[in-house]
């Protein structure tokens, strides 16, 4: 009754590794042999995970992959967190790969859309990060993983250091299902600062010709923060953080949240909120959080990944950050996403479009940008069972089975770049879904998950609205002169303000004229460096002094 | 501006480790010194994670902890997945610990309730597993971890082998925030079969006097499966698995799901469903799944943990299970929970009470049992963005933004043990919440997350019901002669059956008399051993031949 073999995957792995034995010295492959090795280790139709977190890219391996012969390696099914580099898409144009499952495509979103239209690229599904990692263990189990680490020793043990990110998740799914794990490292050394991944999970290590690509994605120059950002930030601090006593949270990467970070040690300090709000974070090491950390606002931060230039600062602040015995940051995207979903009380983010029901998306016409971590952080986790003050504060019903919910806060200006309305009748995502032939529209955060929308006009406490129509009215009350905003009704707004479903600055004790750049704890990157006592070392493009 | 020290946690760790230096030989502590070492390594008020998965217990360390002097170690805040052993609660009676955050308390649930009433035990919060792991990185960061592994080498590298479970998650949160990691191992060896945890994450290794406790929690003897279980199983296969073409799934541990597992190679095979349903699983290695695996039903299984007796069988089936280079199972509870939440289309479980709105709980009067993984698996993950046939099949609206949802299936007999009604007017959980002073009632799965309820009477497709009242009617239609069932209305039921909101066996083409034990692929544990070609080695208590 039993089938002939239960070890087909393992046998195939053994066969493939044997085929490159002549190129290997233990676990080490010479970098000039990488293309030949990939041609031997990959088979047509393989599922290949290529590491591209949003910051850290296995750039040597992605270049090598795009150099293999499509007559030998083709029809690959690529799995990637982030489509970030040109060769991530070149492999499709060259006929090496044909299908992709991914999470985020920021820098390449325009080209992704075009290639779908041309039929060069077949989309599997678009995911939030954690969802994609989950599928690596169920129905997207990889045949081959191409990942990046800082250093390896000669036994193949890996040091991923400050930028551990998603490397452990990818390797685990591959290594323990008889897939082949190929790692590019910046350096092969005799002794590692610490071991992040044991050598027995790794098959091939190759020293790259240059360090893996690493982008400073979470660095926001305070110089770019406007008084509008500051006004939104002040309202959010008073009307959300203070009102609900939010202690654990995650911030997106926009200027609105950067403004909040820089207002904590000044504006929020004057309100007497230190220790009462925003103490426990899940967040990349945002440079704009340095003043708050130095002022004693921040108890702990668990990081999804590192941030270029923050290495020394983080290493010098182990009471706040998670670090290893060697002193450097430990980031782990999978655990940070779990914590960001289940263990923090609030997500604060921004978006490009919001419809009348508070559905939002960053997928706009002609750009299939994907989601990243926002859908995971920006929803109420229905499996959550623990309570906290902020979470319980969201209860609006007197049902004895009522439970709290996560605060999901959208902070946006009513117009992008001053002229494109953020509040729209219908999301472009609907049109994009049709063009890309997606089964569902690529909505980033669904309206029924959103609790607060903050604009320069005020705050809509949408979680408090009774019924769909009142939700829409609350939203239109803060939507300014956008199409949605113009539909608002002064009398209804007045009643919503009285019931606390909408608050304008004056309702929160804020004067619009107070919102000045002088409130920012740091006005520019140089200030951040000074706050850090010289430990923060910003990338060249942020240095202009 | 900066505070005096940013390394208080690290300095304290160094101080504590120095205080036991005289007892240590490298990373190794002699087992007779464990109590003294714990008295030196622990401080009053510490947050201590004690590993108690539901199967695997750090039993040597929990016994040692309960032997420390409460005058030296007290006011501990315990964090435990599972309250399973008597000494897990003894430490509270002895004044060593005072507060607990946990997930599951099955075997000790009665005593937990009593101790809360007596004021001996202070409950923090009750969690689903993944939620608890998330909090280890945010607001429940441990000072000390007490965990269990199979083997260590003299450098402190660990082999957790088939029972990796939650060890990596606990160690990561502790080791990388300057906490102290103490590990009991069954054996210290010169060379490990593979490295699961690098030694640089581990502080103290102690060889236990006997192997850690390991329970065969997922073993269901086919002999105990009744014709009622089989009838429910047949209906579930036809009316849920086949109807919605469900390929990826998780099963709970009850007899209803064991029956389904044993019906796949017989009943479902006859229906021609092999390869069409139930191919990709997240599941402990259930012995009752052996016949389905051997018959080619199962493509892959990712495991939360191991199962006693299944080690050899799993090692011989690497095409199906995740295994390491040494050949033994790799389980990882954190990743399996992520996959179980986000990457599978269906959860099928059972419960002790269901109310008229389909809310359910295993917390019943006087027993604070907690949740385990059910809330995580048994809800619709709002962050999910990928689609599948089964998921899309749940769409009932024509809103262009409509998306699919996870199938959350409750399979229950209308009466427990033949006389306690499962369908009740009000959950005992409400009363328990009051007694234990919980902020919210301990509901395991909320009614609005449930899509199907299957009983021996039929299937309620509650996701299809229009409005709350119709949902209740659908539920009552399958609730038999329980108080809820007696409230049903024959005319409404008829209309619900016509619209496919309710299905009775005859609607599914099933005759009640077909439900016979002869349909089971294995009738007893011995049959399972035979199916496994002798590779499954059941624990003594299941061997009676």
From TrEMBL, chains A, B:
SUPFAM superfamilies: NagB/RpiA/CoA transferase-like. This is Malonate decarboxylase subunit alpha. It comes from Pedobacter rhodius. The lineage of its organism: Bacteria, Pseudomonadati, Bacteroidota, Sphingobacteriia, Sphingobacteriales.
């Amino acid at each position: 009754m039993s089938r002939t073999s239960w070890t087909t995957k393992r046998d195939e792995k053994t066969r493939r590794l044997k085929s490159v034995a002549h190129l290997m010295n233990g676990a080490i492959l010479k970098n000039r042999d990488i293309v030949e090795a990939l041609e031997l280790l990959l088979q047509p139709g393989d599922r290949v995970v290529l590491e591209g977190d949003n910051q850290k890219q296995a750039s040597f391996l992605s270049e090598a992959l795009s150099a293999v012969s499509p007559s030998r390696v083709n029809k690959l099914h690529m799995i990637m967190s982030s489509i970030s580099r040109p060769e991530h898409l070149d492999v499709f144009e060259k006929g090496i790969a044909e299908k992709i499952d991914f999470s985020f495509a920021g820098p390449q979103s325009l080209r992704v859309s075009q290639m779908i239209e041309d039929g060069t690229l077949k989309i599997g599904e678009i995911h939030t990060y954690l969802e994609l990692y989950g599928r690596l263990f169920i129905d997207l189990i990889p045949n081959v993983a191409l990942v990046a680490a800082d250093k390896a020793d000669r036994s193949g043990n890996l040091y991923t250091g400050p930028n551990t990110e998603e490397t452990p998740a990818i390797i685990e799914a591959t290594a323990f299902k008889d897939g082949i794990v190929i790692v590019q490292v910046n350096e092969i050394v005799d002794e590692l600062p610490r071991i992040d991944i044991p050598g027995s999970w790794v098959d091939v290590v190759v020293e790259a010709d240059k360090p893996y690509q690493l982008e400073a994605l979470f660095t926001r120059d305070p110089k770019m923060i406007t008084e509008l950002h500051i006004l939104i930030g002040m309202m959010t601090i008073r009307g959300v953080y203070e009102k609900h006593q939010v202690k654990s949270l995650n911030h997106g990467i926009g200027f609105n949240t950067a403004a909040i970070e820089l207002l904590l040690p000044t504006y929020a300090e004057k309100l007497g909120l230190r220790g009462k709000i925003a103490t426990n974070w899940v967040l990349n090491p945002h440079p704009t959080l340095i003043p708050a950390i130095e002022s004693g606002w921040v108890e702990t931060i668990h990081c999804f990944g590192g941030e270029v230039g923050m290495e020394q600062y983080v290493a010098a602040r182990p009471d706040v950050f998670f670090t290893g015995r060697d002193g450097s940051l430990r980031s782990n995207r999978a655990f940070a996403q779990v914590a960001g979903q289940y263990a923090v009380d609030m997500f604060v983010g921004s978006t490009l479009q919001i419809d009348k029901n508070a559905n939002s998306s960053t997928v706009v016409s002609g750009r299939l940008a994907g989601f990243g971590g926002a859908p995971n952080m920006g929803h109420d986790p229905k499996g959550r069972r623990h309570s906290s003050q902020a979470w319980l504060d969201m209860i609006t019903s007197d049902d004895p089975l009522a439970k709290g919910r996560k605060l999901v806060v959208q902070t946006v200006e009513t117009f992008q770049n001053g002229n494109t309305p953020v509040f729209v009748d219908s999301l472009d995502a609907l049109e994009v879904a049709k063009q890309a032939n997606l089964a569902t529209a690529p909505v980033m955060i669904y309206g029924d998950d959103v609790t607060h929308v903050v604009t320069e006009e005020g705050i809509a406490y949408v979680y408090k609205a009774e019924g769909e129509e009142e939700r829409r009215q609350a939203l239109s009350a803060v939507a300014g002169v956008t199409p949605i905003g113009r539909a608002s009704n002064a009398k209804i707004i007045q009643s919503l303000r009285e019931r606390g479903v909408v608050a304008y600055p004056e309702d929160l004790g804020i004067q619009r004229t107070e919102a000045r750049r002088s409130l920012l704890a740091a006005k520019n990157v140089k200030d951040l460096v000074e706050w850090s006592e010289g430990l923060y070392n910003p990338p060249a493009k942020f240095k202009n002094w």
